[in-house]
Write a structure and sequence with these properties.
mainly alpha; Serine Threonine Protein Phosphatase 5, Tetratricopeptide repeat; flat
C-alpha cells in the first residue's frame, strides 16, 4: 500500500521535471526493496512484479543506475527460481544498463 500511495502522490503532483524524476527514482528504489522482501520470503511472483515496476520506472526517468539495480535483482530472482537462462540474460542486461 505505501508504494501505491507514493506513485499516486507523484502522479497527482510534482510539477518540476527534475523533482519528479528524483521522486520516481526513490519510488523505484522502494519497489526494489519491497521486491527483495517478497523474494526473501519466497513470494517470487510478487517480487517479479515489484522488480518489473522498478524497471518501468527506471526507463520512464532514464535512470541507468535504477535500471541496473532492477535487472540485478531480477537475475537473483531467476536464479533462485531455477531459471538459469533468464538469470544470465537479466545479469547481462544489468551490465549493459
Amino acid at each position: 500500500a505505501p508504494l501505491r500511495t507514493a506513485y499516486a502522490l507523484l502522479d497527482a503532483g510534482a510539477s518540476r521535471r527534475a523533482t519528479s524524476d528524483r521522486l520516481y527514482t526513490g519510488a523505484g528504489e522502494l519497489a526494489i526493496s519491497v521486491g527483495w522482501l517478497a523474494h526473501d520470503s519466497g513470494r517470487f511472483d510478487d517480487a517479479r512484479s515489484h522488480y518489473a515496476e522498478a524497471l518501468a520506472t527506471s526507463r520512464m526517468t532514464g535512470d541507468a543506475g535504477l535500471e541496473a539495480h532492477a535487472f540485478c535483482n531480477m537475475a537473483f530472482l531467476a536464479r533462485d527460481a531455477g531459471r538459469p537462462r533468464e538469470a544470465v540474460r537479466a545479469a547481462q542486461a544489468a551490465q549493459r544498463a
